[in-house]
Design a protein that fits this description.
With 150 residues, the chain is α+β, with helices and mostly antiparallel strands. It contains three helices and six strands, in the order βββββαβαα. A hairpin with a 5-residue loop joins strand 2 and strand 3 (25-26).
Length: 150
């Protein structure tokens, strides 16, 4: 029904673990769901339905290899909060939040590509040396004149 308190939230656990394509398991105990009035489309129905979905995931309790968990926590932090309110229905917003969290976890779990150092291009070397020469000339004009006739 009607809720006189603006942005009042209710917490409700949703059963089931979340498993990503990469094999990372988010236990149901690490997930907190919050539902509140949305602000997007829906006309007057927005005022009465809790269609806005907020998902908070405690990333320190993920079920994955230690190095994967450490990489995710280093990238995203100890917890991640994802909000969806674009859809009119709570179910579709909940699905959108689930897709986003799974996607973020898989991206954060990827090992960063190793950087292979490359040689500087001939043009960049020429440009750098030219700038050094110009800077040297600017600084030499600031020096006091050399009065030593030897």
């Amino acid at each position: 029904g009607y809720c006189p308190i603006k942005n009042a939230t209710q917490e409700a656990p949703v059963d089931g673990d979340i498993t990503t394509r990469g094999g990372i398991v988010v236990p149901a105990t690490a997930v907190t769901w919050r539902f509140s009035h949305g602000t997007g489309p829906g006309g007057q129905g927005v005022n009465t339905t809790d269609s806005r979905v907020e998902l908070v995931v405690n990333l320190t309790s993920l079920e994955a290899a230690d190095y994967v968990r450490e990489r995710i926590v280093a990238t995203l932090g100890p917890a991640v909060c994802i909000v969806a309110s674009a859809e009119r229905s709570q179910l579709r917003n909940r699905e959108a939040v689930m897709r986003r969290v799974v996607e973020r976890l898989d991206v954060a779990a990827r090992r960063p590509r190793a950087r292979r150092p490359t040689r500087p291009t001939r043009g960049s070397v020429r440009e750098r040396l030219g700038e050094k020469r110009q800077r040297s000339q600017v600084k030499s004009t600031r020096r006091p004149p050399d009065d030593d006739p030897s």
